[in-house]
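Hi V.,

You were right to ask for the full record rather than a summary. Here it is.
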Amino acid sequence: MSTNSAIEWTESTWNPVRGCSRVSPGCEHCYAERMAHRFSGEGGAYEGLTRLGRKGPRWTGRVSLIEESLAEPLHWRRPRLVFVNSMSDLFHDRVPASFIGKVFETMRRAHWHTFQLLTKRSERLAQLAPSLPWPANLWMGVSVESQKYLSRVADLVTVPAAVRFLSVEPLLEALPDLDLAGVHWVIVGGESGPGARPLEAAWVRDIQSKCATAEVPFFFKQWGGVRKKDTGRVLDGRVYDEMPALAT
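Predicted structure:
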């Protein structure tokens, strides 16, 4: 069964993998950890998750492969934007390359959808890319939260995806060295929920200016904060909803 998504830049989610582990500061307030814990029932017994007292839910590093979910998109007849593994990372080191290949094969077969796949594990992405079937309906992205992780962009632009994109969320500092050569789309957003770290408008404006200069679509997802609905999505008097063209 597909899951309709409230994420502004997609329509549905598909999760053939469950469970994850933290790899960088952008993971500190992981929404997927909170969501998994919320839906796990009394005691928070979600597979691959534990609860550390006041620190809240934490991934254990355990990853489950959901074989029965592999064919789900083939049964969705209406074309849609599908965010792949919103609750995990397909390129986690505990996900076998053979299973990643199966996920890519499903995306290739379900050619009427557009799949959006994000990872923070860009080194493994670049390593496996030559052995994967890259369909025209796959948008491949990496998450970048600070200058320290711009190497993920360098890894991304080596892969033969039809659309390569950046999820700059949560943006934790300015990215003056961001290079958009080989990038087709940029999403920017602030952190939301308990303990949300602040987002400065100057950081966002700088990235939007870089996108305008490079003619790269720019999508501003949110200012974030504890109450993200109150802060909204307006940047300098407008909403930025720019996206790449869908594959035909």
